[in-house]
Amino acid sequence: MEPFIVCLWILAAVCLVTWVLSLITNEHSWVDRIWSLVPLAYVWVFAGAAGLQDPRLNLMAGLVTLWGARLTFNFARKGGYKPGGEDYRWEVLRGRMGSAAFQLFNLFFIVIYQNVLLLLISLPAWTAYDHRTPLGPLDIVLAVVFLAFLVGETVADQQQWDFHGWKKAEIAAGRTPSPRFLQTGLFRISRHPNFFFEQAQWWVLFFIGCAAAGSVLQWTVIGPVLLTGLFIGSTVFTESISRSRYPEYAEYQRRTSPIVPWFPRSRDEQPVTAP
Asked: What is the spatial distance between Cα 189 and Cα 261, in angstroms, rounded to a whole number?
């Protein structure tokens, strides 16, 4: 069976399972729980279809496995796999939508759209499968860049983990945490450095597929493009919640780059506006 057809069967199965589980449990983070696992299956399907004999596909599968292991660990330690470990944003959204509207949103966006997106971001492996050219220096450079982004995301998540541990300890001791949200380390140069590094890794995987084909004109660019769009929308929604909780978040937004790491503005520096 063609590897892409196998991936379509996996897609249909995970859509069905995550949707049914969301109805049974009334929790809507089941796609989050398989987010770090399903892309591994897709990429390894293509590597396996090549008999594990194609160095580039094996490299891509190895990189995605490292990505998945890191993300699974971070999600697990935050309690994402425990009962009740639903993303807090879905609860907020349920409060803003009617029950019927949210169920449609659950089926078509949370379940179908996000699962299709997980397949799309994995399809540079299909490009590499169809263009089994020799592994070259560009592939090695891209792999090193991927690993650098992986390290960056690991550091950002650890800084966030440490901060929230400190914040809980302060509250438990009866003190008011100050600051109330993370603004140091990588979060000094980006409000969401983990979002940046996450997207960047999938752009690198796309370029590895391009290296196989010898051209960047590949339709699989739709995967990282849609992933970037998803993160932009998620950032806007998440920050609307943060502003409602922390009035001082507006000042943090003024001086700090939203996603792409960049030098922070000084307190006196005003953002440039169009004339």
From this structure: 5
